[in-house]
Q: What sequence folds into this?
């Protein structure tokens, strides 16, 4: 209850509030309209609380109102998109923005985007250029393809490829590859959206060359291979690889397309990581089109990269839908700079954050967990206790679901035996409520902070700097 309750008639008008000397600076910074709108809300709220007898006169002093209005304005202007700490253990996390972009790709952006640029202009002869040309030669060099084009994301790449090559005709796909990628991207639906008829061959676990051969008919326009990114068929399984399928397709005069999903441009096995198929292998195997994402293992911006034979890429580029799916100059600039990093493959684990995170030695993560343990334990006491634990993370974004990434971190459990679930939810919510939210995961009655993605001194310092705020939220 307020010590000296305010009545609605104690509340100043919007005009009087804004004329106060306390608000001159704020007014000069943000202008009258925003301030008046926020002041109206603030004073309305005061009026409601005064009517309920919940408002104290002190809250209506000019400094108190100025402080409340300043807070309301900064909240109104705060960005909805915020940096978080990804301590989930999933490195390429779709809900957390997938690949982290390289500094080398981000630093030139301000200057590039502020000024006019040669997005579709050929500086050599002053002629009109194609924005694809900014990355086409790099993509060809890196994948061995004859030609390349880029669109908004890989879902768009697949849609465009099917529409351009097989609209009004049939596309043959193995039943083992009719996958759903999450977020409502299902192969049969994409086929329908592109105006093609899906012809399913084989079975869920086994598809043979003759299954494809028998399905080829006068209406067939395309054979398609889909990388089953987010699940694996194990045991009694068989599929037809791209080189065998290219032979079958080309003998019938058909193109072969391959949707690789993640498609890493470098062999991850080189760093002891699970292997993902490479676009360059699929091109070498005879695929006419290979598509993959820009923001998965490639470590770049959201993009759909399409590489292949000159003739097929030209058909895709000329298809009208291409114009609707084209990349904007902002991600295109980031993509070009990211691809250029691949010209120095032996510097990639340093220059490309995604690869840096994926190749981080487990021993280093473990040592970091030991270092953080006493400080974090102190912040969590007495309700929770923490310990260092080996963990299994994931690459993420549909790559290799069966392969886990050995990692380490802090496992936290409530001290009280009662209400464990609720206590963990409360901790998880408090972590998400921090100025830079910490995203964790709960498994087997513990909250896990996988530290693989907490890299670099400044990140760790910022994480530790938030612990006092966590203590406050847990109090
Ligand atoms: C991720 C994925 C897609 C969709 O790619 P986006 O870049 O997210 O649009 C399509 N196909 C496969 C096999 C995938 O793994």
A:
């Amino acid at each position: 209850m307020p010590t000296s309750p305010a009545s609605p008639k104690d509340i100043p008008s919007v005009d009087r509030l804004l004329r106060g000397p306390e608000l001159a600076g704020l007014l000069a910074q943000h202008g009258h309209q925003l301030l008046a709108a926020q002041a109206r809300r603030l004073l309305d709220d005061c009026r409601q609380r005064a009517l309920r007898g919940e408002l104290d006169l002190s809250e209506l002093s000019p400094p108190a109102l100025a402080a409340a209005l300043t807070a309301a304005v900064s909240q109104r202007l705060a960005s909805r998109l915020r940096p978080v700490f990804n301590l989930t253990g999933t490195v390429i996390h779709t809900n957390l923005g997938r690949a982290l972009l390289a500094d080398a790709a981000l630093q030139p952006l301000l200057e590039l985007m502020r000024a006019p640029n040669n997005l579709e202009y050929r500086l050599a002869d002053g002629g009109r250029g194609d924005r694809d040309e900014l990355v086409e030669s790099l993509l060809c060099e890196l994948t061995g393809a004859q030609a390349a084009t880029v669109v908004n994301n890989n879902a768009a790449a697949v849609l465009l490829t099917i529409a351009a090559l097989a609209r009004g005709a049939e596309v043959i796909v193995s039943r083992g590859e009719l996958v759903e990628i999450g977020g409502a991207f299902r192969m049969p639906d994409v086929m329908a959206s592109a105006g093609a008829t899906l012809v399913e061959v084989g079975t869920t676990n086994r598809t043979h060359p003759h299954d494809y051969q028998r399905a080829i008919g006068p209406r067939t326009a395309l054979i398609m291979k889909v990388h089953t990114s987010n699940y694996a068929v194990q045991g009694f399984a068989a599929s037809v690889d791209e080189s065998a399928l290219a032979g079958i397709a080309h003998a019938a005069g058909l193109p072969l397309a391959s949707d690789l999903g993640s498609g890493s441009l470098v062999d991850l096995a080189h760093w002891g990581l699970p292997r993902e198929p490479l676009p360059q292998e699929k091109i070498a195997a005879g695929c006419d089109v290979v598509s993959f994402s820009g923001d998965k293992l490639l470590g770049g911006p959201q993009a759909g990269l399409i590489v292949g034979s000159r003739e097929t890429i030209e058909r895709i580029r000329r298809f009208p839908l291409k114009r609707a799916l084209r990349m904007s100059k902002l991600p295109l600039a980031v993509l070009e700079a990211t691809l250029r990093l691949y010209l120095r493959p032996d510097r990639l684990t340093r220059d490309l954050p995604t690869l840096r995170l994926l190749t981080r030695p487990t021993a280093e993560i473990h040592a970091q967990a030991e270092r953080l343990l006493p400080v974090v334990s102190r912040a969590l006491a007495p309700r929770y206790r923490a310990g260092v634990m080996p963990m299994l993370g994931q690459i993420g974004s549909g790559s290799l679901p069966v392969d886990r990434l050995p990692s380490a971190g802090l496992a936290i459990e409530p001290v009280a035996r009662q209400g464990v679930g609720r206590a963990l939810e409360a901790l998880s919510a408090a972590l998400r409520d921090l100025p830079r939210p910490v995203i964790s995961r709960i498994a087997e009655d513990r909250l896990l902070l996988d530290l693989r993605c907490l890299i670099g001194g400044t990140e760790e310092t910022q994480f530790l700097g938030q612990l006092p705020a966590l203590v406050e939220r847990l109090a």
